Amino acid sequence: QVQLVESGGGLVQAGGSLRLSCAASGRTFSTYVMGWFRQAPAKEREFVAAISTSGANTNYADSVKGRFTISRDNAKNTVFLQMNSLKPEDTAVYYCNFLASIVTLRPLDSWGQGTQVTVSS
Predict the structure, then answer these.
(1) How far apart are CA 105 and CA 99, in angstroms?
(2) CA angle 34-35-37, nearest 5°?
(3) Mean pLDDT of 17-28
(4) Distance CA 90, CA 92 (A)
(5) For the chain, where are the alpha helices, taking DSSP H only?
(6) Which residues lie closer than 8 Å to 19 by C-beta, 6 or more apart?
(7) Predicted local distance difference test score (pLDDT) of residue 71
């Protein structure tokens, strides 16, 4: 049974930083592309970032390029999202998931509880 447990969210001022973590289980973590998504109030869930199995390749939404960095620790079955230069429009609940590929970005499993990120102006 897949479990996705996100943590690290909080309230931060614009221009600040946060580091999100996602502990994943239920699949062989090191063999799957991982990704982060977010959902703001009254909006659809959207893709944020993805990372290949080895960490050598990444993919980012245009809105976060240059500000967010995705990374992973295969020994700890954990994927991270370092978020710098945060903007109020980054406010959302952030989720991670196993992905079908770094190109299709299709999530494979049900969503976890997510972690709330709130950026004040």
Answers:
(1) 6
(2) 160
(3) 98
(4) 6
(5) none
(6) 8, 80, 81, 82, 83
(7) 98
Q: What is the rounded distance in angstroms from the CA atom of residue 7 to the CA atom of residue 11?
A: 13
User: What is 5-33 written as a DSSP string?
Assistant: EEE--EEEETT--EEEEEEEESS-GGGSE
Residue with tokens 């992973």: 72
In the numeric block, which tokens belong to residue 32? 């799957």
Backbone angles phi, psi at 89, to 5 degrees: -70, -5
Query: What order do you get walking across the sheet with 33-39 strand by strand?
Result: 10-13, 115-120, 92-99, 33-39, 46-51, 58-60
How far is Cα 120 from Cα 69, in angstroms, rounded to an integer? 21
Sign of CA dihedral 72, 37, 27, 5: positive
By percentage, how much of the chain surpasses pLDDT 90? 100
Q: What is the layout of strands, in order, in the sheet containing 3-7?
A: 3-7, 18-25, 78-83, 68-73
**pLDDT band at 95; cut points 50, 70, 90:** very high
